[in-house]
Amino acid sequence: MAVVGPVIVKLLLPLILLWLNFNSSLSLTQAARKWESWKDRYPFIKAASSFSSSSSSSSNVGSQKANYYDYIIVGGGTAGCPLAATLSQKFSVLLLERGGVPFANVNVSFMQNFHISLADTSPSSASQIFVSTDGVFNSRAKILGGGSCINAGFYSRASSSYIKKAGWDSTLVNESYPWIEKQIVHKPNLAPWQRAVRDGLLEVGISPFNGFTYDHVYGTKFGGTIFDRIGRRKSAAELLASANPEKLHVLVHATVQKIEFDTSGKKPRAVGVIFKDENGNTHKAFLSKRRGSEIIVSSGAIGSPQILMLSGIGPKKELEKLNIPVVLDNKFVGKGMSDNPLNTIFVPTNRPVEQSLIQTVGITKMGVYIEASSGYGQTEDSIHCNHGVVSAEIGQLSTVPPKQRAQEAIEVYKRNKKNVPQEAFRGGFILAKIATPLSTGKISLKSNNIDDIPSVTFNYFSHPCDLKRCVNGIRIMEKLVKSKHFTNYTQCDKETLDKLLNMSVQANINLIPKNTNDTESLEQFCKDTVITIWHYHGGCHVGKVVTSDYKVINVHRLRVIDGSTFTESPGTNPQATLMMMGRYMGVQILRERLGRAAGL
């Protein structure tokens, strides 16, 4: 049996990046202008260059001058924004974000421009592309709101067993999720593609049908979305509207270079941070000396271990190689990195389909989640144009080894791409994500410069259980696209499928050398076509780098609160739980510091 059979084809996610729509509608332009008024709603958000260091030597800490804060949060992402909003109810908070604001950015704000944002490699882009040492393209958010600004918007909670394993208070968890949901989460307007996927999943046995729910339960369901009815994104940044504007200070384009410590005691004590602004000028911000003040790192699975190591907390030998003064030797910082492998199947149709991102999910008992997206193609011109570093023209040819990627090979690929049938841009994707990968890797510094993305290794499918689960996922996808309900919807003819199948051999998927002669092995298909769904996590695990309440082990006044502390990605998609975690830990910290329920 062929890997995908005559009905399906393995054109994977990077091809979506060819489907960019450069002609935003008038309604989007009008909506973007409306959101230019974000400065009125968020008066506490300022450019990093507005920060004054003039009072940095002041001894009058109690007066809370501009440079002294009860909490300094490094990273205004999916967890950092709700955390900052919550802590500001009672204490002064400085939130430092290396990217810009999302509110007036049309590529971020509107669903139809989802892929433009991912493909943007300009300095002002909301996403930062990197390639892991495994050879898989990946992205890291660089914007206030973090990953919730560049993701597919799907909102689904973690399972009750995940909550229990994390040691979280279920009562507070069940108060924190609704705090998020009431502000930014919506019930989706279901697209026809998503209904067809639902029917197909049920037909192949992914049951029962659980309807619309945020809960993580076995079977097929529709989940929430952070896109509203007109397709406008509501990211974690909008949770800052719940902050106390008198106590919150948010700086964008503020890149934290390191945390500073007082090492005169038995244990190092965090005292402040050094950051640079959009003009390259350096500033310092300090913690108040009041009891309970803390620096909280919330920079994500790449940024948080990177910042700890640049600040001198990490494996001693690695730090010394880069002449970084060692504050605390901890061999576990940066270890245990994991990414949920994703394999996809492209299904063409003989007509345009409505755009949809993730709305339907099949939660199986075989360690794999099935999701779907559809309908990105707008114009034939978009198919043939150059889309920058992530496009095929750059020469990342999956069947050509890196050293053989000459200009001639690139030109051949460009010519071949013109033969992709128009139907290739009229279909959608079925996605299979490994739920809890056992394969792990690491992150290590390339230099002592915060702007250099670290070396990241995930070791996809190095554990045999992950490969077995991937095969399960491919088999489910095969059954799904052949199901009666789904084929009745797609109505794709065999000629188009054959053309797409021929093109898939040269698909720009990743930089992993392909075994193109082995077309019968599902295991090999998994390895050859692995990509990411951007749910990577780890690097600052509980019990190894941080305690159960996320305090950095053997360091005073320093915590890490984000996905770098996870050993597993929560639920089908992690953003709901990351935002919940920010709110949850904010309330926990307030209760701990105030010694009573904060009434939040």
Q: Can you characterise this structure?
A:
This protein has 600 residues and is α/β, with parallel strands linked by helices. 27% of the residues lie in helices and 18% in strands. The strands form 7 sheets. The protein has a 7-stranded mixed β-sheet, with helices on one face. β13 and β14 (282-287) form a beta hairpin. The model is unreliable at 1-28, 54-66, 377-405 and 500-506 (pLDDT under 50).
- CA(first)-CA(last) distance: 58 Å
Major sheet description: 7 strands, mixed
Average pLDDT works out at: 83
Strand content: 15-25%
Shape category? globular
Counted by DSSP, the helix tally is 17
DSSP helix fraction: 25-40%
Low-confidence stretches: 1-28, 54-66, 377-405, 500-506
Task: Trace the largest sheet across and list its strands.
Answer: 8-9-20-21-22-19-25
Quickly list its features.
single chain; 600 residues; alpha/beta; seven-stranded mixed β-sheet; six-stranded parallel β-sheet; 17 helices
